[in-house]
């Protein structure tokens, strides 16, 4: 069964609008905003990316993380498969001139020229990408990054812990299913790191955050010129 990226995530954002939520993570949005604000500040302090650099967020959703990065002074482009999410993000952030959103699939970034971005930030999107599409996405990320540019991967990893997810989990594919389609990839940490390295990146930092509802890999890599 093929992944249903658009259908599945569009339905989720329509539900977010109906319930009056602020975005992915529902009522936990303030905690998530604090987490990503701190994460971004640590990245800037440790890796010193170019001031006012060009940043691409993959899977920008309602635009909450993109807005944090834009408030740090970067020029941010968010791309997202759900048209409803793009509408929410654009309307909510219309006053931020250094921030824009497009409806696009992460497997095809052809709207952008080669070597456009200083940083590509995975907004928890790449764990939504399944099978052969993953290599397409990694090749596109490499292509649109400037040589030496940063790639920040943020992905669920290792074994699922959430009971609902485990009920619909295929341990051979390492994918959770929804509505009969694979929709989340739980790569092992070593395999995710290998996937990044095999697409032309040098790994600068990797850390697994262990959480009760599932672990996550935070990796920072650099495009090898
Ligand atoms: C876990 S959500 C995170 C959203 C946002 N970055 C945040 O943290 O609030 C992952 C996002 O990736 C988007 N997405 C899933 N598959 C995609 C694809 N093939 N291309 C672009 N975006 C996709 C989803 O619609 C969703 O908004």
CATH C-level name: Alpha Beta
The major beta sheet can be summarized as: 7 strands, mixed
Q: How many strand units?
A: 10
Global shape: globular
Helix count, per DSSP? 7
Q: In percent terms, what proportion of residues is strand?
A: 25-35%
- What is the number of independent domains? 1
Rounded to the nearest angstrom, the radius of gyration is 16 Å
In round numbers, the mean pLDDT is: 95
Task: Summarize the structure in words.
With 225 residues, this protein is α/β, with parallel strands linked by helices. The chain has a single domain (5-156, 186-223), classed as Vaccinia Virus protein VP39 (Rossmann fold, 3-Layer(aba) Sandwich). It contains seven helices and ten strands. The chain has helices at 5-19, 29-47, 64-71, 83-92, 133-144, 163-167, 189-198, and strands spanning 54-58, 75-80, 99-103, 117-122, 145-157, 169-170, 175-178, 181-185, 201-209, 215-223. The strands form two sheets. The protein has a seven-stranded mixed sheet, sandwiched between helices. Strand 9 (201-209) and strand 10 (215-223) form a beta hairpin. The radius of gyration is 16 Å and the shape is globular. The model has no long low-confidence stretch (mean pLDDT 95). Bound molecules: S-adenosylmethionine. S-adenosylmethionine binds next to helix 1, helix 3 and strand 2.
